[in-house]
Amino acid sequence: MCYCDEVEKLTFKYIFPFVVLAISLILIVASWLLNFEKKREKEALMERIVAEQKMLEEAQKKAEQKIYLMGKFDPSTRENFVSVPEAYNVGGYKMYLRKETLDAFSKMREVAKKDGINLAIASATRNFIYQKNLWNNKWSGFTLVDGKDLSKSIPDGAERFKKILEYSAAPSTSRHHWGSDIDINAATPEYFKTPKGALVYEWLNKNAPLFGFCQPYNAKGPDRPTGYNEEKWHWSYLPISRTLTRDYPDLIDEKDINGFLGEEYVSKLNLINDYVLGINPECL
C-alpha cells in the first residue's frame, strides 16, 4: 500500500473529526454572537423606547405645570381644589383653594377666634380668566384706580402698566393662580389702617407663620426693593407656594405672558424677576 494512502487514511481518521468539531464550534460561536448582537440591539431599542417615553412624560408634566402656574385651568374641576365654605367667605361668591391651604386657614381661624380675632377670605384662587378681567377693567378704565380712569389719566401704555402693577399682577403671573394664596378680610390698605384692621394684621404677623403662612408683599426696602406695594392682606401657604415660586422662572418665559390688554409692554418690564420673584425673602 502506498504511503500516501496511509497518510490520507490517518488524516481522515484523526484530523477530520477535529475539523468538523472546529467548524461546529465556529458555527455555534457565530450563532451565539448573532443572538448576542440581536439581544443587544433589542435591549438598545427598549432603552431608547423607555428614554423617549420618559422624555415624553417629562415634557407633558412640564406642560401641565406651566398651565397650572399661569392659572389656565378651572379650579372647580380639579380634585385637589375645594370650595371655600360660606362661613369663611367675605365676598359671597364661589371661591376655591387648594385643600391643604384651606385646612391650614381653618386651623388658624379657629385659634384666632379664641384671641378675639375674626379671619375670613376676601379672595382665593383667581385663574387666568378671572385675573384677565380684573386687569383689563383697570387698563380700559372700567375699574377706577385711585379714583381715576387710567386710560385717560395715563395714556402712555408702559406707565399705565406699571401703575396697575402697584397692586395687581398681570395675568399668568399672579400667585392667586396657584390656590396657595389668600387675601384676608379685605384687600385694601384702608382696612388695615383702621384699629380693627391693625389688630388683625398684628395677630397675623405674629401667628400666621405658625400655620405655614407668609406675607409675600411686605414693606419694600433693602430686602425687597422691587415688586408690588405692601399688601398686609395677602398671605401665602408656603408648603405649596414655595416650590411653585422656585419652579416659575424655570418653566415660564416672558413670551408666555400674553393674552390681555397691554401685553405688548411685557418685554419692557422684568415681570418674572422683579414681580413674581420680588417677594419677601422669608417666603422664598
Summarize the structure.
The protein is α+β, with helices and mostly antiparallel strands and 284 residues long. It has helices at 3-69, 99-114, 128-140, 150-153, 157-164, 195-207, 238-251, 271-276, and strands at residues 81-83, 96-98, 121-123, 181-184, 213-214, 234-237. The N and C termini lie far apart (103 Å).
Any low-confidence stretches, pLDDT <50, length ≥5? none
Q: Encode the helix/strand succession as letters.
A: HEEHEHHHEHEEHH
Overall pLDDT, averaged?
A: 92
CATH C-level class of the largest domain: Alpha Beta
The oligomeric status of these chains comes to single chain
Structural class: alpha+beta
Structural overview:
This protein is α+β, with helices and mostly antiparallel strands. The protein has two domains: 69 residues; 209 residues, Muramoyl-pentapeptide Carboxypeptidase, domain 2, CATH 3.30.1380.10. The protein is built from eight helices and six strands, in the order H-E-E-H-E-H-H-H-E-H-E-E-H-H. Strands 3-4-6-5 form a four-stranded antiparallel sheet. The chain has a two-stranded antiparallel sheet with strand order 1-2. The longest helix has 67 residues. The chain is elongated. The model has no long low-confidence stretch (mean pLDDT 92).
Helices and strands, with pairings:
Blueprint: H1 3-69, E1 81-83, E2 96-98, H2 99-114, E3 121-123, H3 128-140, H4 150-153, H5 157-164, E4 181-184, H6 195-207, E5 213-214, E6 234-237, H7 238-251, H8 271-276
Antiparallel strand pairs: 1-2, 3-4, 4-6, 5-6
